[in-house]
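This part of the workshop introduces the protein records we will be handling. The question running through the whole workshop is how a given chain folds. To make this concrete, we reproduce a full record directly below:
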Amino acid sequence: MTLLQNPRQLFVKALLASGFALLLVAIMTIMADRVSAHGYVDSPGSRAILCKNGVNTDCGAIVYEPQSLEAPKGFPAAGPADGKIASAGGAFPKLDEQSSTRWSKVALSGGQQTFTWKFTANHATTSFRYFITKPNWDPNSPLTRNQFESTPFCTVNYGGAQPPMTYSHTCNVPTDRTGYHVILAVWDIDNTVNAFYNAIDVNLSGTSNGDTTAPTAPANLSASNVAANSATVSWSASTDNVGVAGYRIFNGSTQIGSTTGALTYNLTGLSANTAYNITVRAFDAAGNVSAASNAVTFTTPNISGPDTVAPTAPGGLHVMGSATQNSVPLMWSASTDNVGVTGYQIFRGTTLVATVSGTTLEYLVTGLSANTAYTFTVKAIDAAGNVSAASNAVNVTTPSAPTTYPAWSSTQVYVGGDKVTYNGVNYEAKWWTLNNIPGTPAGDVWKVIL
C-alpha cells in the first residue's frame, strides 16, 4: 500500500532541507573567512600548532585555524579575560582546559632561545612580547593574569613595519625556574585594537646546565624542484651531545625559515631569474648553533614569453578591528602569481579607491559617511597588467554619528530630563541641579546616556 503525503507536509520538508543547506553554507563561509588569517608561534611549538600537528589531542576547531587566536590588545591591563587567555577570549574553549598533564610540553632551557612566528597575513606590527608564569603558579588552575609575571621577559619592537611571512628572533628565557611553565606570546598589531595570543607549554630545565657544545653542521644540502618562485632544499641530520632542537635556513646571511626537526624545507615566494645561496645551521635547546652546511646555489628560471597568467584572488578579506564613522580598516591574505604579485586594488563597490604594493596586505579606507552601508573587494595585479578575480566581498555599515547636546554650564539650572554634553560624554539630569559637574562624585545627579 502506498502512503501519500499532502502538499503541506512536502512543503515543510523541503523548507527544512533548504534551511539546513543554507546553514551549512553560512558556517562554511564563516570558517573560510577565519581560516585566512593571521599567525602563530611555530617554534617552540605553541599549544595551538601542536594541536594542528596532532601532538596535542581533543583540541576542537583550533586544529583548522591555529592562526586565529585574536583578541583586544593591551595585555595584561586589557586583552582576553582570565580563564580564557589561551583561547584568546573563548572562541576555542578547548584551549582553556588547564592541568599539569593536559598539554604536551616543549623541552626548553633558560637563556637565549629562538622564537619563530609563521603568518598567513603579516600585518603591520608594533611588537612581539613574551610573558611567563610565576615560579609558584598553579598548573591545575585556569590561566589568569595573576598566574603570569606582569612584565614581559622579552619585548621585540617592530616599529609598525610588516614582518616577513616567517619571522624569527631571539629572547632570553628566565633561568630562575624549572619544570612546567606557560609562555604567553603576544603579537601586537600596529594600527588596530587587536593582538594575537599564543600559549606555549614548556618544560624548563633552568639554565643550559653547562651545555656549550654546538651540534655538528648539517651535511649533503641539496636543492630540487627549482621553479620560478619556489624550490625545495633537503639535508642530512646533525648530531649533538644532548639533542638537536631544529634547523635554520639561510639565504646568504638572512634567515628565511626554520624547522623543528624536519630535514627538508619548501622555499616559497622566490623571484624569477634570481640567484640564491642557501645554507642550513642546526641548533640545540641550549641555544648553541652549528657551523653552516655546504652551500647550495641556484638561479630560478625566467618566465619565457608574455605573462598572461593573472594572480589568484586575494583571500580572507575582513575588517581588522572596528569601523569608525568615516573609515574601515581592511586586511586580506596574499595572492600568488607565476611571476610575482606587484600590487592590490581596493574597491568600494565598483569604484577603485586605492592601489597598494604587492607586499601590503592591509588598507584603511577613509572619507566614508556615518551610518552608511558599503561593500569592499580587493584584486591582485602583476607587472604584466594581469588582474585577478575579486576577493570575497565584505559588507560594512559605518556607525552612526553620536548625538551631541548643549555643553554643560556651571551657571545654568537644569531639571530632570535635561541633556548636556561634557568632556565628550552625554549626560541626562535625574532631577534639579545647579553647578554639579557631570562625571564627578558630586555630579551623581547626572546619568550617562548615548
